[in-house]
Amino acid sequence: MPVAARKKRTTARNERLEARVSRETKALCQKAAQIQGSTLTEFVVNCAVEAANRTIREQGFAELTKRDRIAFVEALLNPAPAPNAKLQRAVRRHAQTFAG
Fold first, then answer.
1. CA distance 76 to 44
2. Which position among 32, 36, 46, 76 has the lowest Cβ density within 10 Å, counted as fewest Cβ atoms?
3. Tens digits of residue pLDDT in 40-54
């Protein structure tokens, strides 16, 4: 194995997680790991990483949604100026072009 690959693997695995679980939970996870063809540790770590990524993604979506709500309320409270003549003509052309 190349030195860079060994160093990366060593660097990537220098922390430890531990958890106490019931016998049933461990058996369930072992069965799932076996079905996937992975070790119990690989299975648990992969599931934890997926859950962490999903949680972070959902948090980002919630923040975007909050920002969108604020922008919507701001637009209602402070509406943009009325469309100018050029925009009104463009709207009419659009309606004529795409009217079925």
1. 48
2. 76
3. 999 999 999 999 999
* Cβ-proximal residues to 40 (8 Å cutoff; 6+ apart), any chain: 26, 29, 30, 33
What is d(CA 17, CA 22) in angstroms, rounded to the nearest whole number?
17
Tens-digit pLDDT profile for residues 5-55: 545 555 578 899 999 999 999 999 999 999 999 999 999 999 999 999 999
Triad 86, 88, 92: Cα angle to 5°: 115
| Interacting residues of 49 by C-beta distance below 8 A, sequence separation 6+ | none
Contacts of 43 (CB under 8 A, 6+ apart): 29, 32, 33, 36
- The residue assigned the tokens 């972070």 is 56
